[in-house]
Amino acid sequence: MKVENILDAVGAINDEAVQDAKAYKRVRYNKAVKWGAMAACAGLIITATALTLPGILREPSGGPSIPGGIVTPGEHPEGVDPVIESMAVYPATEDIRDVLDATIESVDENTAYGIPGLGNHLPADLPAGYHFGKASLYETTMKNGTKYHLLRVTYTTGNDEITTAPANDDGRVAVADPSLFGSSFVVLIMDHEPRTNKPIYSFKDLREYLETKDDNGIFHFAYEDVYIGVSPDDLSAEEILDVVNSIP
Fold first, then answer.
1. Is residue 192 within 8 Å of 148, Cβ to Cβ?
2. Bridge partners for 140 per DSSP
3. Is 233 left (phi over 0), alpha (psi -120 to 50) or beta?
4. Is residue 3 scored above 50 in pLDDT?
5. pLDDT tens digits for range 89-103
6. What are phi and psi of 114, to 5 degrees?
7. Torsion angle, CA of 83/86/92/98, rounded to 10 degrees?
8. What is the pLDDT of residues 114-154, one digit of tens each?
9. Pairing of strands 131-142, 147-156
10. Residue 176: which H helix or E strand, with range?
11. What CA–CA distance (Å, rounded) separates 222 from 229?
């Protein structure tokens, strides 16, 4: 596996850490706790980077929280590269042992919307204040030659990149600057049925689900020839419906 693919994987884990830090910040506004969450985020990045050094980490990384790429803590099939395992996207009918390779490629907005079969299902309308943040294309190749893809796009109201404050004179590690965090939500477009323990809804059942759900966790629905996942963060039910209804 190429080094740039490992770095892309670190970026994806990095992105998930941002989401977790923002969610934690909304629950607890205590300044010390907020900066503690950012320090934990930095720790995750350092841990993920260590995966590039063979022999240092023996346990597999949890990887990005994406359908198909779920790694159960403490479980790691013998002979499977843990980094590939953390990036792989495939349906429940496949087995990680049959994965030949897995890559993540960062793409810009024009490229994301232009990916045949995936990008054409991204939303055309966004809630007020939101704009394209970043996108990644996951590709998994099975040993029989079958390929599976997932397009992950983050929409944000702020700067979605992690930045760091200047290091102190005493050499302490800088932490992420929370002043540039904004609200965000994530859309996943898959060419296969995702591996998830949650229900996969039909498009017509989404309104009823959104009007009765009591959390902002990720949900999935089938749409034409793809499966779509939405991690709504702090969007309202009506905002989510507007986004979903704008999907071509």
1. yes
2. 102, 148
3. left
4. no
5. 999 899 999 999 999
6. -100, 0
7. 0
8. 999 999 999 999 999 999 999 999 999 999 999 999 999 99
9. antiparallel
10. none
11. 9
Q: Are 220 and 209 in contact (CB under 8 A)?
A: no
Nearest to 194 by CA among 220, 215, 218: 220
* CA 88 – CA 150 distance, rounded (Å): 10
Residue-wise pLDDT for 173-193, tens only, equals 555 555 556 789 999 999 999
The confidence score (pLDDT) of residue 2 equals 46
Residues listed for the chain: 248
- Residue 117: helix, strand or coil by DSSP? coil
Question: Which helix (H) or strand (E) is 219 found in, with range?
Answer: strand 219-223
The pLDDT of 46-57, averaged and rounded, is 40
Helix, strand or coil for residue 79?
Answer: coil
Helix axes of 3-27 and 31-49: crossing angle, nearest 10 degrees: 160
Question: Are the CB atoms for 103 and 97 separated by under 8 Å?
Answer: no
Token representation of residue 33:
């706790």
Token pair in block for residue 90: 């495939």
Q: In this structure, how many other beta carbons lie within 10 angstroms of the beta carbon of residue 135? A: 22
Q: What is the largest CA-CA distance in the chain?
A: 58
Token pair belonging to 122: 């991204």
Q: Which residue has the higher pLDDT, 39 or 149?
A: 149
Q: Which residue has the tokens 């704009």?
A: 131
Handedness of CA 165, 161, 15, 237 (dihedral sign): positive
What is the percentage of the chain residues whose pLDDT exceeds 90? Answer: 46
CA distance 182 to 156: 6
pLDDT value of position 45: 46
The per-type count for the chain, helices as H runs and strands as E runs, is 6, 7
